[in-house]
Amino acid sequence: MIKEYFQDLISLFYPRICLACGNTLYKNEHMLCFSCLYHLPKTNFHQFEDNAVARQFWGKIDFSSAASCYYFSKGSKVQHLVHQLKYKGYKEIGSYIGELYGKELKNSPLFNSISVVIPVPLHPRKQAKRGYNQAEWFAIGLAESMKAELDTTTLIRAHSSETQTRKTRFRRWENVKEIFQLTDPQRLAGKHILLVDDVITTGSTLEAAGHELKKTPDIKISVASIACASH
Predict the structure, then answer these.
(1) What value does the mean pLDDT take over residues 199-213?
(2) H or E element: which one contains 225?
(3) 223, 46 in Cβ contact below 8 A?
(4) Model pTM?
């Protein structure tokens, strides 16, 4: 009773809000209100081998499967959610969505053999400035609910890159094509890897990371993200 009183008092001065719509959360809601939890635009791409995200990589790199949890559009609740994760320090929303989405991926024949989850790394300077890697927090939740290993050391970003915002697809690819390196390729040999990022737009960053991972013998790579651009 006393604990609930203090929680109510804290909420009065520091209200708990839904990170998608901004409404105040009820006691039994966490990170997202029930309305957003059930009405944010899910893609369900993990159920289909042929989907809009997978097609982005056809003819460029042989990913086994590709999926995103939500559709992303300008001014949407999903954009607000990603902004809270990426720029406002709400890193826990990444792991929360990862846990939810990981349960769905684990039940998909396309993703249920994954044994290692690897987030697209940030350059150490950029990560130090931001304080965390948003893709890594998404990966933490995925690995937990998929009962997979989280690997944040084998794939590294050896060179810094400019922001990808407002670049054409070709310029995005030129910007990232040689920035990743593997510290121990044999560690991933013969495994099914899930390579993850926060948002897929052109897919250039995942493509570049995937080409580096492909240097590993007998590796199988799938990709996933919190959101993808809706077309």
Answers:
(1) 94
(2) strand 220-229
(3) no
(4) 0.87
